[in-house]
């Protein structure tokens, strides 16, 4: 098909596109980037922003005023990119007239030569609320699994140890029936300990096989939810937990579920190698283009000879916890992989009998 013929057919069907847009649930808009004049908006835009077409046309800057303060700079930066002819899809929050917080998704594009910006806006509030709820429960699930694994594996290990001592004693007194029963207790506890650890290990390893889905998230909220879960179980695991942050809100592009698993795994290791009543701290520091996350403990530390190989698969640094908890082995290599998927880096500082701190630096975008 020749270009003139295609242009003729496009102009012929354009009224039908406009008719479809007028009845669509998504909002469609076009405006002149130089004069800041609206060229077109469909009725759905009125519904999404709860503003009349006349109001939006006469005062387009009122839309920016609706954007949540924490997201406003993010939207402005995206707009600056659009002015340079870039395509952009972003999600942000607005404060509606009813004082309700709503989520919008905007996909827009600018023809730099003609200074025209066109885009589609969609209300994704329900989707984001469902995703946030799922992330919250996923985070709690991982924290609870780690806490339960310590709560259950600890007593079972003691029962197994007591059963082993009883077996040795019974062998001297020749009680075959009692010896058989004690052996059964020992085997059952061993199987239960292995089952608990295999389940936790499987949940973590699965994260490496799933797709990375990065979204703009407030990492402060994410970390606070994790630490609230551990603080609620501080008495059970006999540890103290502390969380600090340089800012109330720190936004970056990340897969919240995978970062949750990274932090949960680091805290789990800290619990294993920190004595009772010791302290485990998680801290966030916002930098210019990155965010620094640290997980620190005052436990037994990691011998210097293992520092270089710690993040390797099946590293020699594997060792049981202070209460006999087994090591996953793959844990640290998976953590490093997830961090690198985010374009970040991980390192540690550790001194034997003083403690260990893991540092993770993640780019904001």
TrEMBL record:
CDD domains, per database record: HATPase, HisKA, PAS
Provenance organism: Fulvivirga imtechensis AK7
Enzyme Commission (EC) number: 2.7.13.3
Keywords (A to Z) from UniProt: Kinase, Phosphoprotein, Transferase
Residue ranges constituting the Histidine kinase domain according to the UniProt record: 147-365
UniProt KW Nucleotide-binding keyword: no
Listed name of the protein: histidine kinase
The keyword Ribosomal protein belongs to this UniProt entry's keyword annotation: no
GO molecular function: phosphorelay sensor kinase activity
Family annotation (NCBIfam families): sensory_box
Stretches assigned to the PAS domain: 13-86
Catalytic activity: ATP + protein L-histidine = ADP + protein N-phospho-L-histidine
